[in-house]
């Protein structure tokens, strides 16, 4: 029960910041895919930077468990390509389609209905996917520090510097 | 216009950093990472159970991803509420069926936008589930 309360409170806060950052907009999402407006890239990378540093700190202090998903090349590449096509057509991802409805952009409703249909289709196709894409190139639960055999605090500063470099580039180009 | 935007919206860097902080606190306090697409599949299972619970019980994917309302489902519902509150309190709530950029390229036909949005949602969710996103 308390997990459900944590869920809705966390969602309200996250949805609030998504809206204030303007990342729920079709124009911003498609703007990023067309390389015209990097608002959502700035938002996502900022969130990832804070999240990466915070969660690895918690992990090192023994206060959090990392959530690493398996890298299955067939599923990740195939799924990523399909997701990209669908995202480009809809202009929202699953979470932002819901958020877009919250700020009155109700074309998100069609997207959500489509996503329910997509989920139903996937449940039917799952046995076939298990025999094919989900069994091709399973690399297990790999991470960048693990593959490079270095401590995560070697990778994190490089990631921060690269991100800040990208931010400076975006601001210079007015993206 | 520029001034209005500054008053009603936050810098994406600041809003993003706040979102990142919410994630860190969520992991610390309740042990949950953010996600959305699993909840769509759980919802599909809940809807299909209305028509045939026996059939749902036989589908492998619903055995693995149990149809139920959990932390993430409430998180997704919270995003809807949080977005509504943020939009209403900043005066940026606007009822719109066709986004501006779409209208400029493809016109203001609601059915056309709806059809493509539906198809896009279908393909995107299939891909998201396949990649376990």
From TrEMBL, chain A:
Residue stretches spanning the membrane: 6-23, 35-58, 70-90, 110-129, 149-170
Sorted UniProt keywords: Membrane, Transmembrane, Transmembrane helix
Record carries keyword Protease: no
Top-level taxon of origin: Bacteria
Keyword Secreted: no
Name of the protein: YeeE/YedE family protein
Organism: Desulfoprunum benzoelyticum
TrEMBL record, chain B:
Organism for this UniProt entry: Desulfoprunum benzoelyticum
Lipid bilayer topology: Multi-pass membrane protein
Keyword Lipoprotein: no
InterPro entries for this protein: Sulf_transp_TsuA/YedE (IPR007272)
Coiled-coil intervals, chain numbering: none
Main location: membrane
Family: Belongs to the TsuA/YedE (TC 9.B.102) family.
This protein's GO CC annotations: plasma membrane
Compartmental location: Cell inner membrane
Keywords: Cell inner membrane, Cell membrane, Membrane, Transmembrane, Transmembrane helix, Transport
Transmembrane segments: 12-34, 71-89, 110-131
Source organism, top-level taxon: Bacteria
Pfam families documented for this protein: Sulf_transp
Name this protein carries in UniProt: YeeE/YedE family protein
